[in-house]
Specification:
The protein has about 160 residues and is of the alpha+beta class. The protein is built from three helices and seven strands. The structure holds zinc ion (ZN).
Length: about 160
């Protein structure tokens, strides 16, 4: 079982991750089921590699009882329409922040077989993917929330 990395000032959670060079590499293939197991044990619906101490562009997400492996994900389009959702994070136990996200996104990634994929995600899955890709860019929800607040303040002329 993998150990969860927690804390709003923990360095690995604030660092941009490295792309996965070979999704079929033994260590990556071994990591994927372990990440799913850890996500289930912790009752999460998503888990990014930095949260288990690996600074790699890799995450797992679960929606509608289906697990998606996101290797090297990049969000290529965001809907103009936004939604505010009270988000929690396995790395920030007991903390929740209202985060503004796009209601739909397009994401390109490689699946667990290393095959390139492109999907349009909506609803909860879109929120989870945006949260996990944030992790891969070194952004945790407390910092995303602060940025949002600053922006809102700036708009109050
Ligand atoms: Zn998180």
């Amino acid at each position: 079982m993998l150990t969860l990395v927690t804390g709003a000032t923990t360095k690995i959670l604030l660092k941009k991750t490295e792309r996965v060079k070979d999704p079929l590499a033994k260590e990556i293939q071994a990591l994927l089921p372990e990440m799913v197991e850890t996500m289930h044990k912790e009752k999460g619906i998503g888990l990014a590699a930095p949260q288990i101490g690996k600074s790699l562009r890799l995450a797992v997400a679960e929606a509608d009882d289906r697990v998606i492996f996101l290797i090297n994900p990049d969000i290529t389009s965001y809907s103009q329409e936004k939604i505010v959702f009270e988000e929690g994070c396995l790395s920030l136990p007991g903390e929740f922040f209202p985060i503004i996200r796009s209601i739909a996104i397009t994401v390109r990634y490689q699946n667990e077989k290393g095959l390139p994929k492109k999907i349009r995600a909506t609803g909860l899955l879109a929120i989870i993917i945006q949260h996990e890709v944030d992790h891969l860019d070194g952004i945790i929800i407390v910092n995303r929330y602060r940025k949002q607040q600053k922006k809102n303040k700036a708009l109050k002329l």
